[in-house]
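Researcher: Good morning. I'm working through a list of sequences from a screen, and I'd like to move beyond sequence-only analysis. For each chain I'm collecting a predicted structure so we can compare shapes side by side. This is the next one on the list. No need for commentary yet; just the structure.
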Amino acid sequence: MYLYNLNFLLLVFLSICLVCIFILIFYIRKYYFRQIYNIVDLLSSINYSLDIDKILPQIMDKIMIILNPKKASLMLIDDKGVLKIKIARNISNYIIRGLELKPDKGVAGKAISLGKPILVKDISKSEHYYKIFKEDIKPLKKESLISIPIKFLDKNLGVLNLHFKTRSKFPKTKIEEIMLKIISQQLAGVINNCYIYLEAVSDKMTKFYNHHYIIKRLQEEIYYAQKYSLHLSLIMFDIDYFKNINDRYGHQAGDTVIMTVADITRENVRLTDILGRYGGEEFCIILPNTTLQEASNVAERLRKKIEENKIYTLNETIKVTCSFGVTEFNYKESMDEFLYRTDKLLYTAKNLGRNTVCL
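Model: Good morning. Structure tokens for this chain:
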């Protein structure tokens, strides 16, 4: 009788455990499927745009909400086949400015070459991670890193890098791997569509926005600055004595000069700055949420970088300088007045001897 009661109690106990396990599995599955639903829901709530500079910040903000990484960055492959950070969260501009990585180097490069996510449990012990940074810049704390390749059909577009605390152990489950795959596929589709659109609104030589589109973007940034009481600055600059360069060295050399100045500009501005080819050898930079002094610092850094650079043509080495006009938007003025004021300062810089910044 005693043995019978013991067996009965054991059976009841095992039954209760089994029910608890099923309930636990049900709620775990329900939690993770809800997470996947949240991903789809959040990503679909984005104000869709074909402008890559508008859509990527929204997507990155959603990724930060969904996955809660410490840091995140999206690296895209440029025309030269080099990985560069297009947008980042919680990573300073100082660290990422000018950072280039060949697709066969580092953790991100390994993710592209293998075509699958790469997990580094502790980047402080990874030589691959350190190689992509300058020697004096190293992470202060231990972090895990997962690099997810972004691929549309057979075309490699870039890599999404997510940093977590080492104890977070992300991704822990198959469901979390599915979450990453959904985000990767969403990103790939968005970026591919943006590239198609970008081709239509960009200058073919420099890949900066063309005149028509940069004016449209300036109108939009003025609207946001007025609506939310934000700072907005504008830099206009052009290449000094450009006609003389064409006359002396030929138009092919002139094209090389324009592309080199564009490359230097791209490497020495913030990710949030908007670059345009205003016309001929004249360029402009829209700087959202930027004061006049901050914009002046950007212009002066550019002026020095361009002046120090040597441009090599078939037969000669060319030294080039640029003149800059810098203004901050006044809420009482129109866009045309804003442009006129900046352009006038550019010509003042030329009249003062060129290779200078005028505010």
